[in-house]
Automatic annotation (TrEMBL):
EC number: 2.7.13.3
Database matches in Gene3D superfamilies: 1.10.287.130, Histidine kinase-like ATPase, C-terminal domain (3.30.565.10)
Pfam family, one: HATPase_c
Source organism: Pontibacter mangrovi
GO BP term, example: osmosensory signaling via phosphorelay pathway
Protein name according to UniProt: histidine kinase
Catalysis performed (reactions): ATP + protein L-histidine = ADP + protein N-phospho-L-histidine
One annotated GO molecular function: protein kinase activator activity
Length: 450
């Protein structure tokens, strides 16, 4: 439904100014915001100015219209010119020069809510501009429209200078509003960028936490696998002496019943004591292994010469063994129990696995560099096969090349855990007879003579 309000003939610049003013007045009385009033009036003046410039005369009809259940203020500008031959080209342009033809059409289209244009050769052009009315605007009646028309007719003559000045002031006001909105938009964009940066950092932190979690899960899986292997080995090694003790106890019961206790006990009791000692060593080894690598062990000044003397005297070294210790070993500020365990296990292994006690020789040396210490324990024993040289560090059991009843299989595992805690390593060198175990230690723990 359409309802006409007033019509203005367009023939000169003064008519263009009048059309602008009426557009402002009508949009204001219909409850439009200031910015929308200026947009609608500017679109009207652009099209009317095109009529004056390119055709010479035309008209503009203001009215009310409805579309899609919404109410609009309508301005219908018509002329009887030759038409716009390149209208499709004008409407399809993406960039415009303010001095080129068609700029007014494009600018007007941007300023209104609905824009329609029809141009036929030698039949003129018809432009329809619609601006949406607010829902809270006044009710429009025929009497109200007639009242507005009477008021418009009674107005004094329009001063082009005054109207243009007023238009400029209104445009400046709209520009200021746009500037403030642009500043507000820039602040919002800055805040969005800041939030995006925080979100990206949070995502990176979450990804890092997920990576850490996956890494810890993998470590936990590895630990569980090691624990399974450890439990299997320990259960196997503990069952053997228990079964032997059970067998000896059964034999002792039989001897008691047969009244042969004195004779058999001389043979059985040493065997029983041997099995209990084996279990004791095994349990002691398990405890040492479980304690290896604890973080809360305090450091102290350690004289390696004194430490090695304590280690050697604590071991049951056969009289046929010769142990050589390099003189002038360094003094360290470190965990004494760690070094004690490492040297004790390496020297003890060299004694236990030696197949020729007569003429057995063990030597201990240290090579010092600013970054690391290289300690070595060398023996002239049977040596270690190449395929077993890595296995002896990875498993919780001794190699099967040379079985020793006093071995628990925990020695090298304890050493490996301690050196992992220190961030160092151990390896073995063996070709034919003899073995040389080398392990590193942080050079930063050397105590200077000063």
């Amino acid at each position: 439904m359409q309802r006409s309000i007033l019509k203005i003939n367009i023939a000169n610049e003064l008519d263009v100014v009048l059309a602008y003013k009426r557009a402002m007045q009508l949009s204001e009385r219909l409850g439009m915001a200031q910015a929308n009033q200026t947009k609608f009036a500017t679109a009207v003046s652009e099209i009317c100015r095109n009529v004056v410039e390119y055709v010479g005369s035309g008209s503009i009809q203001f009215g009310l219209a409805e579309a899609n259940s919404l109410s609009y203020l309508e301005a219908l500008v018509t002329d009887r010119g030759r038409g716009i031959g390149n209208l499709d080209s004008i409407l399809s342009r993406k960039e415009y020069n303010n001095l080129s033809r068609g700029t007014g059409i494009i600018n007007s289209k941007k300023l209104v809510d609905l824009f329609e244009i029809q141009s036929d050769f030698e039949k003129g052009t018809r432009v329809r501009l619609l601006k949406k009315l607010p829902s809270f605007g006044p009710g429009i009646t025929k009497d109200l429209v007639e009242k507005w028309v009477i008021e418009f007719d009674k107005e004094a003559d329009i001063s082009p200078y005054a109207e243009i000045k007023k238009q400029n002031m209104q445009l400046l006001e709209v520009l200021e509003q746009l500037r403030l909105r642009n500043l507000e938009t820039e602040q919002q964009l800055h805040e969005i960028r800041r939030l995006n940066t925080q979100l990206q950092q949070s995502n990176e932190e979450i990804n890092q936490l997920l990576e850490d979690r996956d890494k810890k899960n993998r470590l936990l899986q590895d630990a569980n696998q090691h624990l399974d292997a450890f439990a299997h080995t320990v259960s196997h090694d503990l069952r053997a002496p228990l079964q032997n003790i059970n067998g000896i106890a059964t034999a002792l019961e039989a001897c008691i019943e047969a009244d042969q206790m004195e004779e058999v006990s001389k043979r059985m009791l040493p065997m029983l004591r041997l099995q209990t000692q084996k279990m004791d060593r095994l349990i002691t080894g398990i405890l040492a292994y479980s304690l290896a690598g604890h973080h809360n062990i305090q450091k102290k000044v350690v004289d390696l010469q004194v430490l090695l003397h304590q280690v050697i005297t604590s071991l049951n070294v056969p009289a046929t063994f010769t142990i050589e210790v390099q003189p002038e070993l360094p003094v360290l500020y470190t965990q004494e129990i760690y070094l004690y365990q490492v040297f004790s296990n390496l020297i003890s292994n060299a004694i236990k696995y030696h197949d020729r006690p007569e003429g057995a020789r063990i030597s201990i040396h240290a090579d010092i560099t600013p970054e690391q210490l290289y300690f070595s324990v060398t023996d002239n024993g049977p040596g270690i096969l190449p395929e077993a040289q890595q296995q002896i560090f990875n498993k919780y059991q001794s190699g099967e090349q040379h079985y020793t009843p006093n071995s628990t299989g925990f020695g090298l595992s304890i050493i490996t855990r301690i050196l992992k805690e220190k961030g160092t390593t151990i390896w073995v060198e063996s070709e034919g007879r003899g073995s040389r175990f080398v392990f590193t230690w942080p050079g930063t723990e050397i105590v200077n003579e000063q």
